[in-house]
């Protein structure tokens, strides 16, 4: 870290501005990715909770079935041992209830691992941007003071 500080201090004002802008842009993109992962994780956790709830319901139980985000119809539970898993791009795979729960758990674990890795990268990029900004500010203050 000390050697990177020395390298940054050797940069020109223009190089520092470019480095800070690049780091800030990358941090923003990483933050968007982190938000997307967080949203996907919440959806999977909700799906997992729904599967657990569904597995406890008796066959023939009356329930509201969502057709869209705001339209529900009355239905009856037929077989809670088989579920359809949305694997993306319009594809669904039939799984047993236990396989469905396992799928949600594995995907959630993978997303959390990806989140942790991206968070670390974002923190490092933010640190570089902050350091470049601090050195840039110091150089600008020095230029103003010497004029």
From TrEMBL:
Organism this protein belongs to: Genlisea aurea
Gene Ontology MF terms: unfolded protein binding
Gene Ontology cellular-component annotations: cytoplasm; prefoldin complex
Similarity comment: Belongs to the prefoldin subunit alpha family.
Protein name: Prefoldin subunit 5
Annotated PANTHER family: PREFOLDIN SUBUNIT 5
Coiled coil location: none
InterPro entries for the chain: PFD_alpha_archaea, Prefoldin, Prefoldin_subunit_alpha
High-level lineage: Eukaryota, Viridiplantae, Streptophyta, Embryophyta, Tracheophyta
């Amino acid at each position: 870290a000390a050697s990177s500080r020395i390298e940054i201090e050797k940069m020109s004002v223009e190089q520092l501005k470019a480095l800070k802008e690049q780091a800030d842009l990358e941090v923003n993109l990483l933050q968007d990715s982190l938000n997307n992962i967080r949203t996907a994780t919440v959806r999977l956790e909700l799906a997992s909770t729904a599967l657990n709830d569904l597995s406890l319901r008796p066959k023939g139980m009356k329930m509201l079935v969502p057709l869209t985000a705001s339209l529900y119809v009355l239905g009856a539970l037929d077989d809670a041992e088989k579920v359809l898993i949305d694997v993306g791009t319009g594809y669904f795979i039939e799984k047993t209830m236990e396989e469905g729960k396992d799928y949600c758990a594995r995907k959630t674990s993978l997303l959390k691992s990806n989140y942790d890795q991206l968070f670390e990268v974002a923190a490092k990029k933010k640190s570089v941007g902050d350091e470049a900004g601090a050195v840039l500010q110091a150089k600008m203050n020095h230029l103003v003071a010497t004029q």
